[in-house]
Specification:
40% of the residues lie in helices and 26% in strands. The protein is built from 2 helices and 3 strands, in the order αβαββ. Strands 1-3-2 form a 3-stranded antiparallel β-sheet, covered by helices on one side. A hairpin with a 2-residue loop joins β2 and β3.
């Protein structure tokens, strides 16, 4: 799965979470180390931890 697909699926999953919830994503795509933090900045989510291929993202609104 390419990173574009990962971002789309991540966006859908994050919309379902309550404010403050933490989502753990595993993304092995080579673009993920740049794309996931950028997506978090653009959407107002907080990237709590990034250790490729794992990313912990906090839902906004907490």
């Amino acid at each position: 799965m390419g990173c574009g697909e990962v971002i789309i699926l991540l966006s859908v999953r994050m919309q379902r979470l309550r404010p403050g919830a933490v989502f753990r994503l595993t993304a092995r795509d080579l673009g993920a180390p740049e794309d996931i933090p950028a997506w978090c900045r653009l959407t107002g989510r907080r990237l709590l931890r990034a250790e490729h291929p794992c990313y912990w993202i906090e839902q906004r609104g907490a």
